[in-house]
Known about the structure:
Layout: E1 22-25, H1 34-52, H2 54-57, H3 74-86, E2 93-97, H4 103-112, E3 115-120, H5 125-139, E4 147-150, E5 163-169, H6 179-188, E6 189-202, H7 214-228, H8 261-266, H9 268-283, E7 295-303
Amino acid sequence: MSTQTSPLFPKNLHAQSLDLPFARYAHSSDLQHEFWQESRSEIEPFAGKFGALFEFWGTPDYIWPPYPLYAWSRIWEYPFVNRIIANIPQKSTILDVGSATTFLPFYLANKYSSTVASIDPDPFHIHHFSACAHEVQKRLPIKHLPLPVQTRGDELPYPDEFFDIAYSVSVIEHIPDPLPTMREMVRVLKRGGTLILTLDVSYPFGTQAGGLSQSALQALIQTLSDELGVKIPPPEAPRADDVLLLQNSPMRNYNIPKIPPSYYIRQPKAAQKLISTKFRKMLGNAPRYESAENLSVVAIVVQKP
């Protein structure tokens, strides 16, 4: 299979069928393919049940949405990462770099009975993750939970060649200097282990908040190539009408569940923040966070020799 000439993957895509090492932009047409639709259908029920628990453990300090599967880029990234991991034979130990408290590490730990280390440098990580895990274990039929670890990606507290899989979903671009984290992920990965990255990248050029510039992407790929001793080809830019961007993301096609009123009753500060934000929007001066208008997604999959 040539990943450089076809915008779509075969139905049975897995790590062993990819032309590794692999680097590729997200195509908007991918989302119409059976690969993404089937993989999304696999994880969507769990993601929905997981998000519904937010009212029991969420706090005003937790800023990530309860239903991230429907974010503009994650609708592509989560199904991609899920399908690659599903078809890797050895996955007893998995590292999630920058997970926050999202459904994917919980899904993987339970589905594969894997030891999943979910690391994040946020000081609230252990608090939120543990509170969430308590509710997940109480309200969902789940036997295995991931392990929360508060640490930086550039100083992982694990020995060399410890993990079968190391992955990161839309995190690397938010690290001021991501190269040390890349080196650490390679260090703790077993020989023959799989590294999976998805990251926001400026398209076609320039820099945007939260995304890597083209030059930074080149530096990251070069660092991985040097650390692994393999040549990772740069991703081929898709056609302008087929690159996945905020404007053509299907996220608006989904009825994303709303946070129930009971959450705001329990969390007066969250209710106050919600009212303040809506009022500022009415006045036209609401704070503008990350703009994704000129961002796309690049996925990298490589095995450690």
